[in-house]
Please model this.
Amino acid sequence: MRDTRESRLLLVLLIAIAFALITVDIRGGEDSPVDGARQAAAAVFGPVEDGVATVVDPVGDAVSAVRDSGERHDRLATLEKENAALKARLGSDDRNRSRLGQLDKMLKSAGAGQYGIKGAEVIAIGAAQGFSWTVTIDIGANDGVKRDMTVLNGDGLVGRITTVGPGTSTVLLANDPDFTVGTRMEGSDELGFASGQGDRPLRVQLLNGKAKVQKGDRLVTFGSQADKPFVPGVPVGVVSRVDPSGGDLTRTIYVTPFVGFTKLDIVGVVVEAPRTDPRDTVLPAKPKPTPTPTVTVTVTPSAPAADGQYQQEQ
Model:
């Protein structure tokens, strides 16, 4: 196309329309008028992304085997058997060993929290559908996935499902600026709301302005009504900074997420919530403090002199 006045005007018009649609989409929330178009796009482009990602991959069958674990509540014994079978089926190269480790860790977390999950693989990343921090996974409506389901991995909270196609879904990551989740602090049960800040720590507003909190404290999801979009007890992160309260009604803290959002691979969609709140049971064991070495000094007195006084050693 030649650089004419008409072409420039057309370009400006298209950009204006794009920004208008993004604004309408964000303000519309769950009732966005362009949600239907987004779902149609997921139905068209999702299989393409899935097809590109589906190469000869021995881990794919392993993840598929986990997709039925949400249909049983006696998961601990079942997951252990499935895990042993998956290890036998997978290859021994470094990449598969790494992915197997992720799968193993996720299965243990799901068992600890009694979450019914469907395993998935991340097949695409990017902001193609208007979000800043999203990934596409290789399961969708045909696998029982619905909008506003919790997504986790072996480390903790990954995000929530926002768009569902027949065979793929879009996940809004927990570090996205539009992401908010209710949190509860380990031990003290202080409640708050965590918001994403991109590549910076999560910002958490505690409801209690006088809450006692310190660096190293840990948080989990509080859970939502009817468990959507968030189930309770999923690890969120560790407190890295605490702002002074200053007498405010709320208190601000900053939390380093357990999940590394730039290296996602194997994830799980929670398709069945736990019967009871797992509280803090899904959190990993706290590292044991390194003992401080102590030095003991023993003083040996000198031999007494003839006059009964101790001589100073030269």
In short: The CA atoms of residues 143 and 167 lie 7 Å apart. The chain is about 30% helix and 25% strand. The chain has a mean pLDDT of 79. The radius of gyration is 27 Å.
